[in-house]
Amino acid sequence: MKIAILSQDGSLYSTRRLKEAGEQRGNEMRVVDYLRCYMNITAHKPTVVYQGKPLENFDAIIPRVGASQTFYGTAVVRQFEVMGVFSANESQAISRSRDKLHCLQILSREGIGLPVTGFAHSTKDIEGLIDIVGGAPLVIKLLEGTQGIGVVLAETYQAAKSVIEAFRGLNANILVQEFIKEAGGMDIRCFVIGEKVVASMKRQGAPGEFRSNLHRGGTAEEIKLTPEERTTAIRAAKAMGLKVAGVDLLRSNHGPVVMEVNSSPGLEGIEKATEIDVASKIIEFLEKNAAKGKNRGRIQY
Q1: How many other C-beta atoms are found inside a 10 Å radius of the C-beta of residue 157?
Q2: What's domain 182-290's superfamily in CATH?
């Protein structure tokens, strides 16, 4: 097979591992900087052009689109879809997962466990917003934040009110969520491929840190999922329309709750924590599905 990895940096761990895994399985792999691509949008022969040459005859693509480049990155993915190329994740599903509010609304519609979440526009409604999630302590999240950036734990009512007013004063869109104290700064990353969890790890926040992101000093180790956690992760990825996803769960007193569904999950943390060759499993999934024309799994909400 001929597979393109859409990535801005070929030296990144995840990009390197996907390229290595693909080549080891006998595939022709190419790293393509999607920001350097431009598109010929026509009914006769739509194309993606890279470094002055059309990208042709690819069987599949693996989008590794950065959060800050979602708009252009998904446009490139969509152009490949127009050309009939199989994508590990489709443009619509990537866009949907990047909108945290939309993501939570879809998961809610599917009856998937979530932390109690509030969203409002006016600062005049702050008191009601705080009450919805059960009062302080609570978590305030920027809709555009990634890797734990823009996530604040407000331990008192007054602190929550001040932070919300500050964010809204900057016209920033935020979510307010209940604080799952019993999680103890630990969350679970489930790596879903197709309709199967292929690897899972628990991430523990650094001392005094409620965020468990590895980028913020958290540690990771393999964990065994409960049947309910496994089912929740698979349902969440499926609800978003993602074939490859990192689903982040918290263990709460009322069962597993989904914090986020990631359309470009990193491989380094989970491969090192579990010693599972996740990259090869992604390539194997493409090999089994790209030739079958399974590129129309769209979900309309």
Answers
A1: 16
A2: ATP-grasp fold, B domain (3.30.470.20)
Task: Tell me how far CA of residue 49 lies from CA of 15, 64, 80, 230, in angstroms.
Answer: 21, 18, 11, 40
3-class SS of residue 297: coil
Domain over 2-96 is classified CATH 3.90.1310.10: no
Domain span(s) for CATH 3.40.50.20 in the chain:
2-96
pLDDT, tens digit, 9 for 90 and up, residues 128-151: 999 999 999 999 988 875 555 778
| Reported CATH class of domain 117-179 | alpha beta
DSSP for residue 263? S
- Start-to-end CA distance of the chain, whole Å, equals 33
Helix axes 100-109, 227-240, angle to 10 degrees: 120
pLDDT tens column, 223-278:
999 999 999 999 999 999 999 999 999 999 989 999 999 999 999 999 999 999 99
CA distance 235 to 229: 10
Beta strand residue intervals within 143-254, DSSP E: 151-154, 174-178, 186-193, 196-204, 219-222, 244-252
pTM over 0.85: yes
